[in-house]
Amino acid sequence: MRSVLLYMMLRIPRANPVLYTFRKCSTDTAKTNSSDTSRIFPEESTINRKPASLSTPHVAKKENLFLKLEQLESVPETEALRKSLSFDEVPGPKYLKYLSKFWSFFPVMGTQVTASTVQYLLSAGKVYGNHLSWGNNAQFFRKMLDHYGPVVRLHGPFGGDVVILSKPEHVAAVFESEGRYPVRSCLDCLEKYRVQYRRFRRVGPFLMYGLEWENLRKAIAGSLQTLTEYQFELIDKTTDEFITRILRIRNKQDEVPSYFGNEINKWALECMCCITLNKRLGFLDSCGLSNTSEPARMLESLNNATNAIRRCESGIHLWKFFNTPAWNSLVKHCDQLGLILNKYIYKIQDSLHQKKINNEILSSEKTSLVESLFLRDGLLPEDILTIILDMVLIGVNTVSHSIAFLLYNLARNPRAQAKLYKEVVDKHDLLLKDHSLPFSYLQACIKESLRLNPPMPILSRVLSKDTLVHNYRLPRGTYVLIDTHISSMREEYFEDAHRFKPERWFEEAANFHENNYVTMPFGFGQKSCIARVVAETQIALIMIKIIEKFRVEYHYGELTSTNRPLAAPDHSLKFTFVDRI
Ligand code: HEM
C-alpha cells in the first residue's frame, strides 16, 4: 500500500500529444518573436526565466500555503487572543474528526482537499451518517451553520481543516486581519496545468500572491478602471446584435429557446474580447456559428474548461497522480482556448512593434488591455495570456449569470420592471450623449439581483495570522470559507430579504449594508473583483437595451442557483420578450 502511494505521489505527469503540439507551437512562436520582444521591451531580455521543472512532483498545497504565509509579518499576541477558546472547541461534524485521524498519513493531501470535498458535497451531493444527510445539497452551508452554530469546523478527512462562516461580524474579523497580500484558496488543477505542464512562469492573477501579484494587479486594474469610449462603442454594437438575435430566435409566442443562456454567454465572451483585445470576433453573427468557426470553438472550450476545472477540484484530486478524464479535458480545452487567444496576443505584439518602427503615437482611447500590458515592463506574452485566460474564465460566466438572474427578477416583478422602463426611456438621451450611465434605479436593480443571486457566493481566504472569531482562536493558516449569500439573505439586515426590492438601496441603511460585510457579490479588499466597474457597466448596457425594446416575462416556476463554485441558473432560460408598443 505504502509503495503504491509513494509511486502515485512521485509519478511525473506525462505530456500528451495535444499538449506537446501546443507547447511546441508556443515556444516556436516565442522564439520567432523573441527578437521582436527585445526590440519593443529591451528590459525583458534581463528577465531571468526559470521554468518549473516537469520532473518536479506536484508540491503539496499545504506546504505552498505555508510558504506564502511565511512572507507575512507575524502579529503580537493580544489579551483577547490569550483569553479565547481554543481551535479544538470549534464545533463541527464529529465523524470527519475520526476520519481525519485515520487519513492523516496522507502527506500529499491538504486543506485544499478538505475544501474540495466540501465543494463536491455542494455540487454533487453526498450522504454521510446521520448528521450530514442533507436532502438538498444546495442548502449545505445553511444546514451546517443551523446545526453547529455560526462558526463550523470541518476536520478534513485527508488532513487540513476548513472553517465555515457567514455572520458579517465574523467575516469582518477575517477581512480586517487580512494583510497586504491576502491568500485565497488555489485552483490546484489550474496551477498544475500552467506551472508544470505549460511551464508558465506565472500562474495568473486569480491564483497569485505577494508582491508579484500586487504589481500585476496594479497593471491590470489601471486599464480596467472604466471602459474606454472605443470599447464602449464595440460593446454597444455587440449588444445591438444581441437584440437582433433575440428577434431572430424567439418563437411566435415571443419565447426564446432553451439555449438562450448560451446566447448570453456569446455576448459576454464577445464583450470580453472587446475589453481585452479591442476586437469583435463575431460570436453573434446573424447567420449563427458553424461548429468549426473560431468563436464556436472558443465558446466550446470555455464551457468545457470551466466544467473540467470544477470536476478536477471536486472530491479527491486523483489527477495529481494520473491523467483522469477531467484532467485530460482540462488540458485539451485550456490548450484550445490558449491557442486562439495567443494568436491575437501575438498579432497585437506585432502591430505594436510595427507602430514603434513607424514612430506612431498610440491613442490612449484605442489602446486595448493587451496592448497596455505589453507596454509595461517585464511582461511576456505568456504572462498576458494567463491574465486574459483568468479574466475569461471568471468574467464571462459571472456576467452572464448575473444578467440571467436580473432578467428573471425583473420578469417576476413587473412593477419594478415598469419603473426601470420609465427610467430608461426618460434618460435615453443622456446615454447617447456622453456614454455615461446615470441610471440610479437600474443600479439598484443590479445590486438587488446580485444580493439575491451572487454568481460567486462563496469567498475563501487562508488566515495570515491567528484570528479571533466568535471568541474562538482560529490559527494562522486556517482555510476559511465565507458564505456571503447567507448573510445577504438575513432578515436582520434586509426586510423581506427574499423579495426583489431595488428600492431598499435608496434607503439610508443601504450604505451600512454595503460597507459592513453584509453583502459582497464582488468580494472584499485587496483581492476583490478587479473588474467590478466594467462588469456593472456591461450589465447596465445590455439591460437598458433589452428593457427599452421588450417587456420580459418568465413562465417556468422558480429559477434558483446551482450551488457550484460559480452559481449558475438551474433551469433553462426560456424568457418571453414581448415587443414594447
Ligand atoms: C457580475 C460580474 C462579476 C462578479 C459578481 C465577480 C465577482 C468576483 C469575486 C467574488 C471575486 C473574488 C473576490 C474575493 O475573493 O474577495 C472576483 C475576483 C476576480 N474577478 Fe470578478 N466578478 C465579476 C466579473 C468579472 C469580470 C467581467 C472580470 C474580467 C474582466 C473579472 C475578473 C476578476 C479577477 C481577475 C479576479 C481576481 C482578482 C484577484 O485575485 O486579484 N470579474 N470576482
Automatic annotation (TrEMBL):
It comes from the Eukaryota. The keyword Transport does not apply. Gene3D superfamilies: Cytochrome P450. Its cofactor is heme. PROSITE patterns: CYTOCHROME_P450. Keywords: Heme, Iron, Metal-binding, Monooxygenase, Oxidoreductase. One of its GO terms (molecular function) is oxidoreductase activity, acting on paired donors, with incorporation or reduction of molecular oxygen. InterPro entries: CYP11_CYP27_families (IPR050479), Cyt_P450 (IPR001128), Cyt_P450_CS (IPR017972), Cyt_P450_E_grp-I (IPR002401), Cyt_P450_sf (IPR036396). Heme binds at C529. CDD domains: CYP24A1-like. Belongs to the cytochrome P450 family. This is Cytochrome P450.
